[in-house]
TrEMBL record:
Its EC number is 4.2.3.1. Catalyzes the gamma-elimination of phosphate from L-phosphohomoserine and the beta-addition of water to produce L-threonine. Keywords: Amino-acid biosynthesis, Lyase, Pyridoxal phosphate, Threonine biosynthesis. The keyword Kinase does not apply. It catalyses: O-phospho-L-homoserine + H2O = L-threonine + phosphate. Its cofactor is pyridoxal 5'-phosphate. Pfam families: PALP (PF00291). This is Threonine synthase. GO terms for molecular function: threonine synthase activity. Residues 78-380 form the Tryptophan synthase beta chain-like PALP domain. InterPro entries: Ser/Thr_Dehydratase (IPR050147), Thr_synthase-like (IPR004450), Thr_Synthase_bac/arc (IPR026260), TrpB-like_PALP (IPR001926), TrpB-like_PALP_sf (IPR036052). Belongs to the threonine synthase family.
Length: 420
């Protein structure tokens, strides 16, 4: 295993771990895979599906050989993350217009978001280096996940959260898991900039996705989808984009599967951003090669409130390798799609529903054919943002097309029979 800079290609041994190259570029982790045999590994991964209460019962560590083969088991901090459902829904198929739509519910992870797939690896790696104090800046999902794993590892977590436009549920979850929460005036982007300058002096292990071990763990999301589908992926994978770690990991995971011979065909990737926080989509759709940061990102899908995504160069590589596309959707489109994901019984937080809204838009624009199949990655649980539920269903100013309001009635047989 070695670290390779995505900007200048300089290589470093994995033991000299850092978050950035001397040139300022982020690192990729590159494994030595020459000795790996796909057919043999498929059997190993299949056999591990019956593991219980061992690290290999985790939907991340099941794929340890492709993620972090060198890590000694004693350092693994796991809550058996991953193992999340892959669902189909006729309601959502008719909404998007596709022949087949699957939903990968990363919302079912132990802390309620896809961050757990990467965080188990980052915290385990930090432990192996002797760290006990972990940190991140976050709109709330990364912080909840970190706080949970740091406590499981009997360590401490220090998290920085913007003082506005984030979900109180997530901050409360982070506090409850025992993190020291520091609220600051600024955005996620300001928090990342602070770390880039001061991480060394603080002596904290950073668990944001500028840490390449987070990306290694998040690759397991697409490994799991592929394994459940007997190593045949749908035509498209649709994914929301904020910090862009998810699409980066998706692209890296797909390359692993293709290069090693697990899959024959790489699906195309559709990356969906919220209109008010869409610097990456702006760059791609305007044919630019440099990202222009959005100084005041705002979307009601608070997990996507990011104007300067650190992983944009890695994300661009995913698009290039998969003939990918991008689009943006409005907050109302996101919230209506979310109402249907919730009504389908699967449920998700607003950011996740950008995928369903984006798929519908791309089908209507005939960029995705209605006969093509798609999987949408749902990133967070519906209870991550209960204010969004309240505003949509009970809010006086709600414009929700799929509102479901509470009815009041006196408890008499006549009344109730009339309502049913
Ligand atoms: N929405 C994210 C933003 C943080 O991204 P990361 O990829 O650096 O962890 C959050 O939950 O904080």
């Amino acid at each position: 295993m070695k670290l390779v800079c995505v900007d200048c290609n300089k290589e470093y041994p994995a033991e000299s771990f850092d978050y950035q190259c001397v040139c300022g570029g982020l690192f990729d982790i590159v494994h030595d895979t020459k000795h790996l045999d796909a057919e043999q590994l498929k059997r190993v991964f299949h056999d591990r599906l019956s593991e219980r209460m061992t690290p290999y019962a985790s939907g991340v560590w099941r794929y340890k050989e492709l993620i972090f083969p060198e890590l000694a088991e004693e350092f693994i901090t796991t809550k058996y993350e991953g193992n999340t459902g892959l669902y189909s829904s006729e309601l959502l198929q008719s909404y998007t217009g596709n022949r087949k739509v699957l939903l990968k519910a990363q919302s079912e992870n132990p802390s309620g978001s896809f961050k757990d797939n990467g965080m188990t690896v980052a915290v385990s790696h930090g432990r192996s280096l002797g760290y006990k104090r972990f940190t991140c800046t976050s709109t709330g999902n990364t912080s909840s996940s970190l706080a949970m794993y740091a406590s499981m590892a009997q360590g401490e977590s220090y998290v920085f959260v913007p003082n506005k436009n984030i979900s109180l549920n997530k901050v409360l979850q982070t506090l409850a898991y025992g993190a020291r929460v520091i609220s600051f005036d600024g955005t996620y982007d300001d928090g990342i900039r602070f770390y880039e300058q001061h991480s060394k002096e603080l002596g904290l292990y950073i668990c944001n996705s500028i840490n390449p071990f987070r990306i290694e763990g998040q690759k397991s999301i697409v490994y799991e989808i592929a394994q459940y589908l007997n190593w045949n992926l749908p035509d498209w994978v649709v994914i929301p984009g904020g910090a862009l770690s998810n699409v980066t990991a998706l692209g890296k995971g797909l390359q692993d599967l293709k290069t090693l011979g697990f899959i024959e065909k790489v699906p195309r990737v559709a990356l969906v951003q919220a209109e008010g926080a869409s610097p990456f989509h702006q760059m791609v759709s305007k044919g630019r090669t440099q990202l222009i940061p959005e100084p005041h990102p705002y979307t009601r899908a608070s997990a996507l409130n990011i104007g300067n995504p650190p992983s944009w160069k890695k994300a661009l590589r995913t698009l290039e390798e998969t003939r990918g596309v991008t689009c943006s959707v409005t907050d109302q489109e996101i919230l209506d799609a979310k109402a249907l994901v919730d009504k389908s019984g699967i449920g998700c937080e607003p950011a996740s529903a950008a995928t369903v809204a984006g798929l519908r838009k791309l089908v209507s624009q005939q960029i995705i054919d209605k006969d093509e199949t798609a999987v949408c990655i749902l990133t967070g649980n519906m209870l991550k943002d209960t204010d969004a539920l309240h505003e949509y269903h009970l809010g006086e100013t709600s414009k929700g097309a799929f509102r479901n309001t509470i009815q009041s009635a006196e408890l008499s047989l006549e009344n109730i029979a009339r309502l049913l």
